[in-house]
Design a protein that fits this description.
With 453 residues, the protein is α/β, with parallel strands linked by helices. It has 14 helices and 15 strands. β2 and β3 form a beta hairpin. The two termini are 36 Å apart. The structure holds zinc ion (ZN). The site of zinc ion has 5 residues, from α8.
Length: 453
């Protein structure tokens, strides 16, 4: 019995090991090349220090469109072009938030208006603040209790989730919807505790939206410390806050996603590797998502430098407008569907340039099983998690519309939400080797898919 099992196991694994030797050699050639000659880290320095943050619709974003074309050319792309994308133009402008302390003096507190929020038109908006811990607690309040108030939602990240992405998903509804809830009950403004795993006082911006276009009240985020402080203060005092902000939506404009590709040697079916070129309008957009952009370009450069003959077209996509609209991702999927362009696979890196741990897979089970059977090849690189079932925000529309197998690089998540959408998202927070290892993982999975699908 024991013997039969061993033989059966050998028969099952033989075909795998048959291809494994060559594949594992190629895997290490990719890693050697990137870790010794990779340009992703210097590319990221260039993007973050010479352009900086680049909200879509801004002048900086247009500079990054030119930058990405130049980098793709240097990396050796056969073909580089732009896809027109209509993007919203949201501007922040000057903004202040103050709290009136016991001695009657106004004290400025750190905050950021949430992205796509309307401001106060430069006028002071003054009101008493009330604090709730959760949506359930807010639902207990009557409209009379909320009317003319400024509501603070002090809902913290759930520290028990090991994946901070899960905590982000859990708390995300407050950022998206708090202003709509408060407006519905007649409140003046909504403030949220920032979506962060840290216990510092750094405010995090990010996308919000209005359910009712006729009730657009300001939405803002404060750091965790200040949120806790205000929650304590209101227990014994009536606390007044004063918001003055100029953020507003200024219509739409034409912008671009940037593509660069290595044409397929056998056929023209497409494998996409990408990130989003836009960022929020604070910090440098280094981890979110300069990292994904420079890693994707690194993949192309490495295929070219190692002379790996790709059967199918490998297309780097630098998506426009992930942060405040996903117009780039949606336009890409729509055009691909319209022209019936065959896509084999699409992967995005948008979880920061941290040590890769796995690849999330959104696809039918047979394809997922095939990728899982390659796990031993990834093991030496510390990449082992192939069980998550989702994909990057910009590639997911391809899955939804055309059933393209889509994926997202899964880096270690512990530090990402300390800096996500903040002034702290800078080049200095990115480690060269971790960033490059993420690019190694993406090149390796693309190599396997290009060869086997
Ligand atoms: Zn992102």
């Amino acid at each position: 019995m024991r013997k039969i099992t061993a033989v059966a196991a050998l028969l099952i694994t033989l075909p795998f090991f048959g291809q494994t030797k060559a594949d594992s050699l190629l895997f290490s050639r990719i890693a050697d090349e990137m870790l010794t000659h990779g340009k992703a880290y210097e590319d990221l320095r260039d993007l973050t220090k010479n352009i900086g943050h680049r909200l879509s619709g801004s002048e900086a974003y247009e500079k990054s469109v030119i930058w990405a074309q130049k980098k793709l050319l240097e990396a050796g792309a056969d073909k580089i072009w732009l896809q027109k994308v209509k993007v919203p133009v949201w501007v922040r402008g000057e903004e202040t938030l103050q709290v009136k302390t016991d001695n009657g003096k106004w004290r400025k507190i750190r905050f950021l208006s949430l992205g796509n929020s309307e401001g106060t038109g430069g006028k002071d908006l003054v009101g008493e603040i009330i604090v709730v811990k959760s949506k359930a607690e807010f639902d207990q309040l009557t409209p009379a209790q909320v009317k003319d108030k400024i509501v603070l939602f002090n809902y913290a990240f759930n520290q028990k989730f090991i994946s901070t992405g899960q905590a982000y998903g859990d708390a995300g509804v407050y950022r998206r919807s708090a202003a709509s809830w408060v407006a519905e009950k007649g409140g003046k403004a909504a403030i949220i505790r920032s979506l962060t795993s840290a216990f510092d006082d750094v405010p995090h911006t990010g996308l919000m939206r209005y359910d009712n276009p006729l009730k657009k009240i300001p939405a803002a985020a404060i750091g965790a410390k200040t949120a806790d402080e205000i929650e304590n203060l209101v227990k014994n005092h009536k606390i007044t806050v004063k918001l003055n902000s100029n953020c507003t939506m200024k219509g739409e404009k034409d912008s671009f996603s940037v593509f660069g590709e290595l044409t397929g040697k056998k056929d023209k079916s497409v494998i996409v590797v990408g990130g989003h070129l836009d960022s929020w309008d604070v910090g440098e957009g280094a981890s979110d998502d300069g990292a994904g952009i420079v890693q994707s370009i690194e993949v192309l450069r490495t295929f070219k430098n190692l002379g790996i003959a790709n059967n199918h077209t490998i297309r780097v996509v630098c998506f426009a407008n992930e942060e405040n609209g996903v117009r780039g991702g949606n336009t890409y999927a729509k055009v691909a569907e319209d022209i019936n362009e065959k896509h084999l696979f699409a992967i995005e890196s948008d979880g920061g340039g941290f040590t890769p741990r796995g690849i999330a897979l959104e696809m039918e089970e047979s394809k997922r099983a095939m990728i899982r059977s390659w796990a031993p090849l990834f093991e030496p690189y510390g990449v082992h998690n192939f069980s998550l079932q989702y994909s990057g925000t910009d590639v997911e529309p391809m899955h939804a519309k055309m059933n393209v197998p889509t994926a997202e690089l899964v880096p270690d998540s512990q530090r990402y939400f300390d800096i996500h959408h903040t002034e702290e998202d800078t080049f200095e927070k990115v480690n060269r080797r971790e960033l490059l290892l993420g690019a190694v993982t993406m090149a390796q999975i693309i190599y396997m898919i290009d060869k086997n699908w």
